[in-house]
Amino acid sequence: MDTAWHTAIARPTRDIADAPRDIALECDKVTKVFKPPRGATAPVVALHETSFTVRDGEFICLLGPSGCGKSTVINMVAGFETPTAGRIMLGGSVIDGPGGDRGVVFQEESLYPWLTLRENVEFGLRLRGVHRAERREAANHYLELVDLSHSGNAFPDQLSGGMKQRGAIARALANEPRMLLMDEPFGALDILTRETLQDVVLRIWLDTRKTILFVTHSIEESVLLADRILVFTGRPGRLAEIVDVDLGRPRSRGDRSFVELTDRLRSTLLGDVRRMEMGLDGERAPPSH
Amino acid sequence: MKPVRAFLIQIVENRTFAGFLSIGFILFVWWLITAGLGLIRPLFLPSPAETWDAAWGLMNGSANQVYGGNLFYQTAVSTLRVILGFVIACLIAVPLGVLAGLSRAADNLLEPIMQVLQPIPPIAWTPLAIVWFGLNLKAMLFLIVIASFVSMFINTVVGVREVRPVFARVAASLGGSRLQTICLVILPAAAPMLFTGLRLSFGRAWITIIAAELIAASSGLGYMIMNARTILATGDVITGMVVIGLIGAVFDRLLLWFERRIYAHRA
């Protein structure tokens, strides 16, 4: 997609990353085991001894097929679940529950239907006691950021799926979290809307330089968006590989280097998926990074 | 199809018109068997005209020595009793319902009690109410609370449980406290179900207060129609019944309108 802002912000990949940045998130040998579901005896190992770090301002994608632990990681970083073993640290302190420092965008529709779009976006600020005028202004700013300036007074059921997700992104951002967690936010949308929203997310990230953790099962999406891709494999879920995406921005799906990377990832992942489906998953030593 | 038959079908398919038609028919039969053909004695069923006279008399207070007040007074008494009792019932039922909806433990403790109370018709509590509170307002309020409490509680629990879990997670990820989540997210989200509960419970409360007034009060619409029997004023009885039905319907419509206004967006 060839838009003005794409050319305006074109830059080689490593100039910003070269400056040393703080570690925002640290996962240390995190394991998550769930009680066996009804009728089974074996507990479910959703995640096995996973470790990685994330620096401020990075765009990280968690990539993998269903059931490989990537959503479990996001849920634990968000604070909705706690690790069975190991720990997750945000800026030096252990995460022990959800909080306004980690904004979340869910895959399912999550805007409150009894509030207008603007009221939804300013909800976090309202929880914090910010005065109405200030809230309004902030909400309008973030609505503009996601191209929804004219829909502020609409109710969610009057919006399309893509608009609702943009609204959810605006709401999470308006609360000015330290980190944005996105769990397959475009999974329920059609491809065309998804591509538009990928642009929105990229634009926001370049604008705000928020640290973003983005879960997806789309190889193309992860290569398009991420600085680094955490590749997960499943049963038991674990981090199989960490891939540095050494492509300049803006990235184009047709570029040779883009296609090479997606192909490489695809063969790795398909091999893993086949193994998972056929129950042939053997022991593999996780890499260090 | 014959034109006459087509015409008739058209009439009955229009709801308003057909309604007028059937009600009109009933009124006609009423008139016929009372004033028209004199088949029924006025004591058992007064004619429409006689009933209207009785209603008029009730409204302007000509029988005030008997009942203690005119029709509007009796209506006000019953209505205020039920509103007061209903508000009290909600103040207890809704918080408990929210608690039981959110906490398995609370639900495990409260649900069995509700299961035991629910099948007992509220009116069956009347003797106990009189023994405990005497023949006064407190007994009436107690009965109304009993009548509305359980169904309000159950509707609140279901309403809270049906709230999508993601809503609470959103609030948590925006930094909301538990209390904020309950007040600003759970309650508004559960409100449609709560409103349904409100209408149901109010209906039950209204039925109960009338029944209670029949036997245990000295004012109110229920008292009035029971008393009318003793002075053989059947016209007063029928008038009372019509008013009782009307008030019940009015409140139901009012709550429905209120619900639609607040939830114009179809949550």
Shape of chain A: globular
Question: What is the helical fraction of chain A, as a range of percent?
Answer: 25-40%
| Share of residues in strands of chain A | 15-25%
Number of helices of chain A: 10
Oligomer category: heterodimer
The parts of chain B where pLDDT drops under 50 for at least 5 residues are: none
- The helix-and-strand class of chain B reads mainly alpha
Please, how many helices of chain B? 12
Mean pLDDT of chain B: 89
Named at the architecture level, the CATH assignment of the largest domain in chain B is Orthogonal Bundle
Radius of gyration of chain A: 19 Å
Overall morphology of chain B: flat
Topology diagram in text:
The complex is a heterodimer of chains A (289) and B (267).
Chain A: H1 4-8, H2 14-17, E1 23-34, E2 44-55, E3 59-63, H3 70-78, E4 85-90, E5 93-94, E6 102-105, H4 117-121, H5 123-127, H6 132-145, H7 161-174, E7 179-183, H8 191-208, E8 211-216, H9 219-225, E9 228-233, E10 238-244, H10 256-278
Parallel strand pairs in A: 3-8, 3-9, 6-7, 7-8
Antiparallel strand pairs in A: 1-2, 1-4, 4-5, 9-10
Chain B: H1 3-13, H2 15-36, H3 48-59, H4 64-67, H5 71-102, H6 104-117, H7 126-133, H8 137-162, H9 165-173, H10 178-216, H11 221-230, H12 234-262
